[in-house]
Design brief:
The protein is an all-alpha fold. About 70% of the residues lie in helices and about 0% in strands. It starts with 7 loop residues before the first helix and ends with a helix.
Amino acid sequence: MNGRDNGVTAAGVVLGVGLGGFVDGIVLHQLLQWHHMLSNWSLPRTLENMELNTLWDGLFHLFTLACVAAGLVMLWRAARRPHFEWSGSRFAGALLMGWGGFNIVEGLINHVWLGVHHVNEQVPSWQWAYWDWGFIVASAAIFLIGLALNARASRGLARGAA
């Protein structure tokens, strides 16, 4: 075994983006109702604004669904390649890299730079930055754990111990 990736990491990263986005949308948008996609720009206090936020939440979920579908196709193609080498650690690491990486980018762009929404808009506004940066730091930790798992698995496959 030579530790070749054959596309498993890329598939896992794309799947991680989609699954992480689903968790964000389901938990933060729907279950906890802490924010919606445009809730800081278009306060969901009127029916019209809530409809707009619901539409953008749906578009976000459509994006995450497309990522999951693309990741599954990529994984299926990787598994059909000759000399496919499977590593659960590599795949789990890639999922965490995609999830954490997406949340870092989304957090920096939507929460910090654009202020489209904040992680928890149910707390006083002076606390929003703490929640936003906590989300980004936690996401960086998830990404780094995934990177470490992926690297360890790659070294193990290169040595022949998947």
